[in-house]
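Thread title: Can someone regenerate the structure for this chain?

I was given the following input by a collaborator and told the matching structure tokens would be attached. They weren't. Posting the sequence so someone can regenerate them.
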Amino acid sequence: MRTLVKNTLRTGLALMAATLGLITTAAAQSRIEPVRIGLIEGLSGPFANAGEAVHRNLAWAAERVNARGGVQLPGGARPLEIVRLDSKGNTEEALSMLRSAVDQRIAFVAQGNSSATAAALIDAINKHNERDPARRVLFLNYSAVDPILTNERCSFWHFRFDAHADMRLSALMDVLAEDRSVDSVYLIGQDYSFGQHVVRKSREMLAQRRPDLKIVGEELHPMGRIKDFLPYVAKIKASGAQAVVTGNWGNDLTLMIKAAREVGLKARFYTFYGNALGVPAAIGEAGVGQVLAVAEWHPNVGGAASDRFYAAFRERFPRPADDYVHARMQAMVEMLVAAIERAGSTDPLPVARALEGARYDGAGLGGFHHGTMRAADHQFIQPLYVSLMQKAGGEGVRFDNEGSGYGFVTVRHVPAARTEQPHQCQMQRP
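Best answer:
Regenerated them for you:
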């Protein structure tokens, strides 16, 4: 009897162990490893609003990829996941977040809200990938637009999905040059690589296009540290400038525009980012016909596909404060997914090769946005729009921005082929 009990107990324990083994195996199989993109961005600090706005864009893009089945790979479909890595708006912290991404074996990182940070990440990734090829990293840049990043400091491991500063600035300066009501301009920017470049290049382009136009002031200010722009705007007003050119972004632009309204500055603002992150609401009625912006897309470009895309974003993020969506960020995610699927791998080397020269046909956006990733320097070539602030509901202004009652209407469309510029990249390929 005792032997029978022992045998029964032994059999029961064996069956239990086998059952637990099956459960553990099934659970492991159900936890499919996602394809991860590490977002290295200031998600706290003075530019947290800009970082969170980017996160919403990338998270929404990932949601749409996953809704159609995820990333299709030979071993089966895998979900796409955005991993938040808060750099606090600091370059050293961004490098620390890169190390964290490597430790987590995240093969793809995205950053863009600082060209200085992007340059540091490119250098660090170049060194890391040479030293540790088993854990290579690919850098996806959605907003860092200093031209040097795809020229002298170009890298096989870096792909830029935004038009660089000279491409954007050229479109803006063409519009400014044609405005014969303007004969004086003030240049102002943030005192770091991108802001310095915009001020310097604006001076060069205006000398070529409008040598008669007077530059009545030129200034660089500390980045992210100015709380009161009234002294700066007072100088602009005193100069008699009829136009202001700035590459400012985030709170540095919003606070400057707000100060311009408070002192009654009557000047046109030619901006890179004047159509978002609180700027339209900050200037209000004073911005109608006065604030211009340049981007690869805006909500009022027109067309059913564009309208559906924008409406879907607003349905997903209905709060007016969350109204910040860019076609280029959606295109970046879609192109990465397509490159992974073509490569049949998440290894950054074959994925990078699949991205080189890749054409984007608007997949995931309804087909309204197109572009090509130039293989020579990894610069995305896409259309640009210069738009002008107007009251919502007027001709061509179906949508407003951030619930402000003001939107933007196209004043110039630049086809992709006309945005392309020469490069000085000498690509070193592995």
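Residues 35-163+323-382 form a domain with the Rossmann fold fold (CATH 3.40.50.2300).
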